[in-house]
Task: inverse folding
């Protein structure tokens, strides 16, 4: 199935709120290197926020290969599991200005959603996606909350 924008359920999931309930969820962010190789990175729920049904903002560690790839190509694909669906969210991205007052400086991007493919298998149910356990839960959740606020600016 294909959709052109986030529905109400996906908007709520990616709203940047209730991070403590989403702390174990991760997504993959796919980009392409200058050598045309696929590059994958992990991105947490504290580094993505839906601004509108057609716009996501992403915060990446500064100077990473993923960030450089996005600067070079202006494209990325976010792969996420939500409910029993595998989402492929194609984004056209552009860098946002740095925030001088950011507590946790990041490379910030705004991504216009160009296409969302939703994979479902009639013979199987997706039961989980990429999950992890935070080593410093309080510190990570505080950093994520600050990052989400910076992405909303």
Result:
């Amino acid at each position: 199935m294909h959709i052109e924008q986030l529905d109400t359920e996906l908007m709520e999931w990616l709203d940047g709120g209730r991070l403590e309930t989403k702390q174990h969820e991760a997504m993959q962010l796919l980009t392409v290197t200058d050598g045309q190789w696929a590059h994958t990175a992990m991105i947490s729920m504290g580094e993505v926020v839906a601004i509108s049904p057609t716009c996501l903002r992403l915060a990446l560690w500064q100077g990473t290969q993923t960030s450089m790839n996005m600067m070079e190509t202006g494209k990325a694909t976010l792969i996420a599991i939500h409910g029993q669906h595998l989402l492929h969210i194609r984004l056209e991205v552009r860098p946002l200005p740095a925030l001088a007052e950011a507590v946790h400086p990041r490379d910030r991007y705004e991504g216009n959603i160009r296409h969302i493919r939703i994979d479902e298998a009639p013979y199987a149910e997706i039961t989980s996606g990429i999950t992890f356990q935070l080593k410093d839960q309080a510190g990570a959740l505080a950093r994520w909350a600050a990052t989400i606020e910076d992405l909303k600016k």
